[in-house]
Amino acid sequence: MEAHEYQTLFEMESSFWWFRALHLTLLDAMRQLGVDSRAMVLDAGCGTGQNLSNVHEGLSPNIYGFDVSQDASHFWKKRSLDRVCLASVNEIPFQSDTFDVVMSVDVLECGAVFPEKAYSEMLRVLKPGGHVIMIVPAYDWLMTPEHHKAVGAVRRYSRSSLQALLTQPQAKIVRMTHFFGLLLPLVAVYRLALRYFGNKHNEIPRSELKPVHPLVNSLLFNVVNLERLYVRKHRMPFGSSIMAVVRKAGE
Prior knowledge:
Layout lengths: L2 H10 L4 H16 L8 E4 L5 H9 L4 E5 L2 H4 L10 E3 L12 E7 L9 H11 E12 L7 H6 L8 H8 L4 E9 L4 H14 L16 H18 L9 E8 L3
């Protein structure tokens, strides 16, 4: 990810409609797994640390994280995070069978990540009977040159490709659903327009993450939050993101 994008993330993650809904969806999934103050949780690829803060404040103080980016690490102190370190998801610096939950949010699409190796490492550090919560972007046709270059993404997933990656002898997919489905037509039109008419030659690529009017931000959040309430108990058949919950064999 481009260095300037971490500053944008830090400034917008707590208020921008998309991030708010994403974080709440993640917390919903963790609560449904019974995560409480005793659970050991790892954020594999924590970025600036917003999810670490959310879990620490709302579910469990036993939350650890890491990210490969030195640029991301500058923001950990600003969030008062101390159980974080610099490391790659391809080689997780924790002992085997350590965590009850490993969460990975928008990591597997990154160019520096080897998805099979990273997933194997997540399963390794997970306790028997523990869960991986994986969130990835959906649909290759939503790729746009400048945005994905700015955030370091080189791939997106379909349900079938994610299922193929996550299906392992020692792990079982217990849930998989799309989300951000209600706004998919709007996202699709916007992304396709950018693909064909956007500026593909900026020397410094920039993501699509930009502030919107507070009323628009509130409206969009209300739409996706309504969808979030549905996704708690039902499977969404389409959407620009996919969430999978995987259980490691054992206890």
